[in-house]
Prior knowledge:
By secondary structure, the protein is α+β, with helices and mostly antiparallel strands. It has helices at residues 2-5, 16-64, 151-186, 188-203, 217-265, 272-304, 316-333, 352-369, 427-437; strands at 66-69, 72-75, 82-83, 86-91, 97-100, 117-122, 125-136, 140-149, 307-315, 337-342, 347-350, 375-383, 386-393, 441-447, 451-459, 471-475. A hairpin with a 2-residue loop joins strand 3 and strand 4 (86-91). The longest helix has 49 residues, at 16-64.
Amino acid sequence: xxxxxxxxxxxxxxxxxxxxxxxxxxxxxxxxxxxxxxxxxxxxxxxxxxxxxxxxxxxxxxxxxxxxxxxxxxxxxxxxxxxxxxxxxxxxxxxxxxxxxxxxxxxxxxxxxxxxxxxxxxxxxxxxxxxxxxxxxxxxxxxxxxxxxxxxxxxxxxxxxxxxxxxxxxxxxxxxxxxxxxxxxxxxxxxxxxxxxxxxxxxxxxxxxxxxxxxxxxxxxxxxxxxxxxxxxxxxxxxxxxxxxxxxxxxxxxxxxxxxxxxxxxxxxxxxxxxxxxxxxxxxxxxxxxxxxxxxxxxxxxxxxxxxxxxxxxxxxxxxxxxxxxxxxxxxxxxxxxxxxxxxxxxxxxxxxxxxxxxxxxxxxxxxxxxxxxxxxxxxxxxxxxxxxxxxxxxxxxxxxxxxxxxxxxxxxxxxxxxxxxxxxxxxxxxxxxxxxxxxxxxxxxxxxxxxxxxxxxxxxxxxxxxxxxxxxxxx
Length: 476
């Protein structure tokens, strides 16, 4: 028993299966003991009642064998003072024994009580007694006492204790076996969950899943929860791996350009013009790296929930006009017209710098992928309690199968199709996060070789909250 219920030699605690089995066995044994106690109590009460009833009947039957005549009494010739385990004795009115006998060891000093059951003990023995009082003659009393040893009751008790001593160990053994078998079956799905988790931890195979064919109820819910967690982890690690790979690739190119231009400018025969040209290229690549790092940092903070937005009443109409003005020079270099259709007085509760970045990214994206001599149309209007802004171009467009993936980081439909060659694949991811962080929505529509339209909706600033203090929020 110690090997099962004691602590392991290595000092480990009992497993859940062992503890449940132990509790199951203890509860079963306790129930059986309580059942035995109930049966024993009821049986003893019934036996005592039956014994008393038999003793009373035999005493009264013995009384019928006594004849009373002329102020005296006489026993029948066939009267016996011992019958079927009962010993009879007769006492006069003063309690003196006149006929019959008492068992060996029976107490000598006892009280006669008419038609009452009494129990006497002496020398480790117990007897039940019943007294009957018969009046005859001139008020004389004849006492008849029947005495029955309690051996029958003791015999039943001993038998029940013997049965209990034999059955209890067998019951414990059966309870342990049955309990462990039931518990083992019940915990089999949990064991599979543990083994799968260990396999994933040891081998790093996040594609593994917990089998759920044999599970039901809460265990099925637990297995499904673990599988969903593994799926999210797999997706997260895959995105992390892809993100790291793409970021390294994007940073490697400008670093290589900067290194080569620096080496070229440091050549002994490099002219001042060549050195200046090299420095300009280095500065341009450093600017690209700075923009990329800035976007990466912002997205990383967004993922960690540490990117703070200062939300204040913001004139989105003025912000959109200024951003369009900043992009006119870049658009002119590609002979692209920026057409603005902006309703005035549109105010939202937002972070000015973040919203400006979102507008700038959408406009730069439209200019970069627009056709030379084409246009970019920026519109902003009220619509059903929302500020609705769209950036439309007549450029190369996006195929339908790519539309759902353009929001992924570093995703580019075809880098070779980017005329400017400066797209890092982070702009739209950043735009989507900024808009959603402002409780808005954004969608894209596009037709290859005809152009694209990006539209976002933001809740309007409530006019019923004048003077509202700026709020700082950490967005995830």
